[in-house]
Amino acid sequence: MVFLSAGVGDQAVGIVEDLNRRGEGALPGLIGLEIVEAAEGSISSRLQLRDELLAPNGYLHAATVVALADTSCGYGTFVHLPEGSTGFTTIELKSNFLGTAREGTIWCEARLVHGGRTTQVWDATVQGPEKTLALFRCTQMVLYPS
């Protein structure tokens, strides 16, 4: 497995900029998701809450949390794909919701748990302004040319 910014410094900044550009015009860009750091084995992201991201009851919508965590894990997989692979697809995801929020910024820290040749497993923790909001696990199948 090769982390795309095998160097440091400017290369890692370039990866963050590239990941944020990839989200423009797609779900990550529509909800305002921002990747803030890409490092070996981890991705950090944030999302400023606004009314459109809340459920009808006024609390954070579960789909907003899943979108933040899943995108972070997916981008982490993308920048850690093994040499020769062509992409990946999600084969399992699980979330445990521990709390909620109504305003402020929520943060996600995604960490590589298993980086194999055929699968990757990522764990993500979503934090709110005052507490942990969710724990998330995502398994990705690595794709190769047939």
Automatic annotation (TrEMBL):
Residue stretches making up the Thioesterase domain: 57-126
Cross-referenced InterPro entries: HotDog_dom_sf (IPR029069), PAAI_dom (IPR003736), Thioestr_dom (IPR006683)
Stored CDD domains: PaaI_thioesterase
GO molecular function: 1,4-dihydroxy-2-naphthoyl-CoA thioesterase activity
Record's GO cellular component terms: cytosol
Keyword vocabulary terms for this entry: Hydrolase
Key word Hydrolase present: yes
The organism's place on the tree of life at top rank: Bacteria
NCBIfam families reported in the protein's UniProt record: unchar_dom_1 (TIGR00369)
Protein name: Hotdog fold thioesterase
Source species: Rubrobacter tropicus
